[in-house]
Amino acid sequence: MKKSFKRAVAAVSAVSVIAFGGLSASAATKEDVIAAARSAGFLEVYVQQLSNFLASNNFSSDQYDIMIGALGNIESYGDEIALQYFGKTLDEMRGQAEEEADKKNESNKGDNKFDVPASDSWAAQVVDKMTNDQLIKSLNEIVNTGKQLGLDITVEQNGDKNFKIEKPESSLCQRKKNQIKQFYS
Fold it and tell me: What are the distances in angstroms from CA 49 to CA 9, 16, 55, 115, 148?
C-alpha cells in the first residue's frame, strides 16, 4: 500500500513538473516595463516620462506583461534597422555607449568631476534611419497596447517623422472624472 501511494505521489509530481515547469513565478512590475523601454531603444527623456506615468497609475502584473510584449515588438523593429544600417543590435549599440561613458568616468576619477551618463544618441541614430511607415508601425504598437489597457492614446502626424502623441493621462483623468460623476449621481 505504501509503495503504490509513493508511486502515485511521484507520478502526480512528475506530471505537475512537466505541465507547469514552464510557468514563471515572478510577476511583471513597472521596473520591468521601464527596462523593456530602455531595451527597445527609447530615448531617456521618454523613459522618464513612462516612469512618471507608471508611478502615478496602477496596473496589474498582466497589464505590465502586455506593455512589455509591445515594447519587445518595438525592440524587434529597432533591431532590424540597427542591424541593417549599423551592423549591430540595439543592445550592442547601447553597450558600446555605456562602455564609452565608463571610460570617460574612469579618466575623470580624482578630478572631482561628475560621472558622465551614457549617451542615448545611438537610439536617435536608429530612429533617424527609420521611415515614416516604420515609425508608424512602432507607434501603432503603443496605440494598440493603450487600447488593451483602456487608454485612449492618439497619434497625430505633423510632418515627415514628426508625430504628436496625446498623453494617456488625459484619458485616464477623464475616466476617473466620469467614475466620480457616476458615484455621486
Answer: 51, 42, 10, 23, 20
- Which amino acid is residue 91, in one-letter code? D
Rounded to whole angstroms, how far apart are CA atoms 164 and 81? 22
Q: Cell triple for residue 79?
A: 533591431
Looking at residue 114, the DSSP 8-state letter turns out to be P
pLDDT value at 146 more than 60 = yes
Cross-strand partners of 156: 164
Residue 87, CA distances (Å) to 51, 83, 84, 133 in order:
30, 4, 6, 21
Band the pLDDT of 12: cuts 50, 70, 90: very low
Q: How many CB atoms lie within 10 A of CB 40?
A: 24
CB environment 18-38: b (16+ within 10 A), e (fewer): eeeeeeeeeebebebbbebbb
pTM score of the predicted model = 0.69
